[in-house]
Amino acid sequence: MEFVRLLLVFLHLLGMAVLIGTFLVQRRATGDGPPNAGWLHGAGLQLVTGLALQLLAPVTDADYNHMKLGIKLLVLVVIAGLALAYTLRKTTPRWLNPTLGGLVVVNVGLAVFWT
C-alpha cells in the first residue's frame, strides 16, 4: 500500500510541475490566445491524485489537515475554472496568466509551509 501512496504523491508532484511548466510556456507565447491545455491537464491530475491520497488516508494511517486540503482544493478549483472559462473564448485578458501562476504559487506555498 505504501507503493501506491508514493506513486500518487509522485503523480501529484508531476501535476504541480505541469502547472508551473504551463505558466512558463504561456508567458513565452505571443498573442492573446486561449490558455494552454496544460492548465486543465495539470489541474485535473492534481485533483484526481489529491482526492485519491485523501481517500487512501485511512488505509495508510496518514493524518491530513482537512482545513488545509479544503483551501488547496478551493484554489485548484479556481485555477481550473479560470482556465476552462477562458479556453472557450477566443481572446483572454492580460491578467489571466499571472493570476493563474500566482494561484499555483499560493497552492505550493500552502502545501509546503502549512503543517
From TrEMBL:
Transmembrane segments: 6-25, 37-57, 69-88, 95-114
Keywords: Membrane, Transmembrane, Transmembrane helix
Protein name: Fe-S protein
Biological source species: Actinophytocola xanthii
